[in-house]
Design a protein that fits this description.
Elements lengths: L13 H4 L15 H23 L2 H6 L19 H18 L5 H16 L18 H13 L7 H28 L7
Helix pairs in contact: 4-7, 5-6, 6-7
Length: about 190
Amino acid sequence: MPKVPKNLSLLKRSSNRQSNRPPPTSVAPTHSEEDDMQQISLKDKRATERKAQKDAGACFWENLGGKLFYPSLYFDNEWRLSLTTIFKISFSIRVTASFWSIISDCDEVYNYWEPLHLFLFGRGFQTWEYSPIYAIRSYFYVYLHYIPAQLLFPLLYTSKAGFFHMIRCVIGVFNLASEIVLYESVFGNPVHCH
């Protein structure tokens, strides 16, 4: 068994050193028309095989020249979606979710929408978490929804369902902004908010 060097960069693969040329023969062949036709068909066959290998990526290893080291400047740059594409995809997902997503948890209704309804319309349920006796929840998160709700209320005061969906759209816009900042911090230059 051959000895393997400790530095694997010195190791060259024997398959990279092999040539596709046939070994030289000492006897000179006699030529005839039939031999010439076979050689032409053999050349065509080899050319077709080389083209198929090149199309399959076999040429990549031949171009390395037997080296195990491949300089990074030849690698493709990372491909990524543009920021406008990310914005369009995320925006369409958020708007679609705000209109067609169901309310999947009772906490969303009774712990956030009902107190907001109480602030806006003067009536609504108050859960035990918000009651002065226990007071384990803060109204801060509800107030974060109350600020844009006060701005939208004059526009949509006739339709509570429309108002509900617009508040969900505002929440979606904040989610969209955070997703874009996350995308830029992971895949590109971070977005600086000044």
